[in-house]
């Protein structure tokens, strides 16, 4: 049986050659969590995952699994199972033997092997495929086998290194849902690496956004999306990403305003981390769903009516994205109106002041 374990990474430093890839990194994964490491290529997320698995030696720091120091333990002794991006299946073995291979070479009793294989096959819908060889399987089926090979180990921690990136969009969606359900069934600790923000947002109980070997923010998907800690996180998450507008804070008539080029937003009720500094330039960030354009189906209300010129309309099925030019700034708005709207048309819009983020321009940190 799987026994979910916590993972504690402390002051981790990893060097590859003369380059320091990760320096002084801390990460706490609670038992039973689904933690996603998200970031662009080269940010250190796979390196971090492989160090937890024991495939990369650390230069400094410690890695604890289930309360035990595993920094220098052999991979086989860590109680982890790793699923790679490539399927890495044995082509001459059928699915059943691929699933059971590690158990057989470890001398696991035959009855126990059969129990684990049948359980994994049932959970991953591999029962009818057990006698097939990898060449007879689709990409999605092969990835299920790769995941099943990890499941039969009944590890304390499951590690996934971009397991869906080789699949087409439809298969990724299907397997993403199955992974979520699998986590709910097992209650296992899972750490998952991806550069795909949709995977991160839909799978994670908590997510760590990484850049340059540093965790920029660690929190629930809702927290990270709604309250990004810096400009990198703000623009890395979201499709389209958060619109950024530069300006200053001004106090006027008992209210606090963000003043940009021909733009005023009342930020009196914004939850500042400290006393706002009116002398420093700042950046206002707003998500496209919080920019409300006025069309035939709805009208602007409750805010300052602004007017932008449509530069691009992107139909997305159940909604469309409007790109509006407002005095040289490109502002994205998610719009539900289905009526045709030509480029160059002028439309009023408003910004929901209750949903904006503010950042210090110099440090890029959230105010």
From TrEMBL:
InterPro entries with a match to the protein in the record: AAA+_ATPase, ABC_transporter-like_ATP-bd, ABC_transporter-like_CS, ABC_transpr_MalK-like, ABC_transpr_MalK/UgpC-like, Mo/tungstate-bd_C_term_dom, NA-bd_OB-fold, P-loop_NTPase
Domain of life according to the entry: Bacteria
A GO molecular-function descriptor: ATP binding
Domain ABC transporter residues, every copy: 7-237
A single BP term in Gene Ontology: carbohydrate transport
Pfam families the UniProt entry points to: ABC_tran, TOBE_2
Signal peptide positions on this chain: none
Keyword list, A-Z: ATP-binding, Cell inner membrane, Cell membrane, Membrane, Nucleotide-binding, Transport
Organism (species): Paraburkholderia pallida
Cellular component GO terms held in the UniProt record: ATP-binding cassette (ABC) transporter complex, substrate-binding subunit-containing
Name of protein: ABC transporter ATP-binding protein
